[in-house]
Amino acid sequence: MNNIDQLRQLMTLDANINTTGIEERFEQIAKMLFESFAIQKGEKKYLFKEIEFYFYNKNHRDVITYPRSSKPLCWYNNRFGGIDLNFESNIECRESKKYNLDDNAYFGGILIRQLVCVNEVGNVKVLCGPLKCAELFKHNDTTSSFNEPQLVKYDNGMVGYIRRPRINILQPKQIVKEKVSDILNNYHVYPEKGKLCDDFSTFKGKLYRYIRCDKLLHDKDTNLVYFSPWLKDKKEGHPEFYQRLKDLLNEMGIKSKELKCTNDYWARDYMPIQLGKDEFLNYHYYPNYLVNMDDIETITDATKVLRGMGINSRSTNLIIDGGNMVPCGPYIVMTDKVFSENRKKKDDADFKALLESELGHPVIIIPWTPYEDDVYGHSDGFIKWCGDNRILMGNHGDCNPDEAASIRRILESYGFEVIEMRFKDKVDTPCCDLNWAYINFLQVGKNIIMPKFDIPEDAIAQQYIQTAFPDCNIRQIEMKEIAKEGGALHCLSWNVYLPKHE
Question: So what's the architecture of 219-501 in CATH?
Fold first, then answer.
């Protein structure tokens, strides 16, 4: 079955499909439209950027949906001037031009909210809003089908998306009862009005708006790295290591600076995540491994650190650790510790949707089991994105093969190819209290600095990383003392892209 036939089949809903089935279809269709389709008009192609789903049947009484009768995959001009891509739709229409909203009715479509032209050179052209998208469907040349918008196959690679509630469902100061009364003017027969008002209130908050996410800013895009001055402190830090690291950074041409107002030498966990070149997200850093250990005075307030740096950030009140966010293409990979930190159950779908909404990117949750040597639950101690759909995973499989296999299966289910470091079958006595830390390396642009411990695994780990990053210059630095504290180079640093340092 080709892509268009598969999409047509997914768009063929009926009067009996239940809400669970409908929402599953929404997910599958959104993924297909974002990854595998475009709208072509003339020589230009437009990718789907933002879409909203609407469908009504007796089991899913989303009464805001406009009534229509249509085959699947037909374009439909809705009454507000936007364009829908129709589901299979069927509803009886009376001579009065009013419809029968009965148990046999089923209808709906996908409203197109944003499109991105892929043919533009330089600045990306975005058609923002339903009316702008609908302009593609205005007929400029009625003699040529070449100007008719066509749904065409287009490989957009790995794509992530987030879900949010639909917008403009109610006008300002408009109440539900008033809106439903207006809608029912289209119908001759319909269910009891009070129940439809309840249904309207339910569906108003549903996460039926899908927004495709662009790729995140990743380590390969960065051009500057910061460290906490505590790292060079003679009493609390590691001054000899710091000097060796500074020398190595200078040799490799990596620009570095010091942060101010920090309370310890671990920088990654409290500093904002850079989502785009001009987008930083600050979060509530309040980890239980510090609070429970009465080390609350060591918690750094990133707002104070950012003051005077010329970096603007938006904020969320969610409790997050920077080390528990690994950008992978359009996704952010986090361990399930983010649930417990925010006092949520691990299967809390509403919290995950909130997390994705706050981050503005889809989140992949991988499992984590606390044990004596890892109370942190940071995803940067497990994986590193290598570009495209490739992920390098540390040697977790040597120590916890079941959990490592679970992590791998989850990542592969999102389309990633996972390569695991393994030492157990390559050296006689693996040093498990150190060799986990190789994956926690620092990458700035095309330069990588990785840990070294003067053990047989050093050369094996370097080969793994060089194979995963063939275009990178890789150097090693001895840091056994620091790694035994539970972190390595990625934990110690905060690498970013700042235009003024290009």
Answer: 5-stranded Propeller (3.75)
Q: What is the pTM of this model?
A: 0.88
pLDDT digits (tens, 9 = 90+) for 96-129: 789 999 999 999 999 999 999 987 555 668 899 9
- How many residues in the chain? 502
**Could you tell me whether strands 383-387 and 390-393 are parallel, antiparallel, or unpaired per DSSP bridges?**
antiparallel
Residue 192 and residue 493: Cα distance in Å, rounded? 61
Spell out where 325-393 has E strands: 326-328, 331-335, 363-366, 383-387, 390-393
3-213: which CATH topology?
Answer: 3-methyladenine DNA Glycosylase; Chain A (3.10.300)
Query: What is the Cα–Cα distance from 69 to 93, expressed in whole angstroms?
Result: 9
pLDDT at 139: 64
Sheet arrangement for strand 363-366 = 326-328, 331-335, 363-366
DSSP 132-184: HHHGGGS-S-TT-GGGS-EEEE----S-EEEEE--SSSS-TT--HHHHHHHHG
Residue 476: Cβ within 10 Å count: 19
- Of the candidates 64, 40, 39, the one whose C-alpha atom is nearest the C-alpha of residue 176 is 64
Pairing of the two strands 37-41 and 150-153: antiparallel
Beta bridge partners of 48: 115
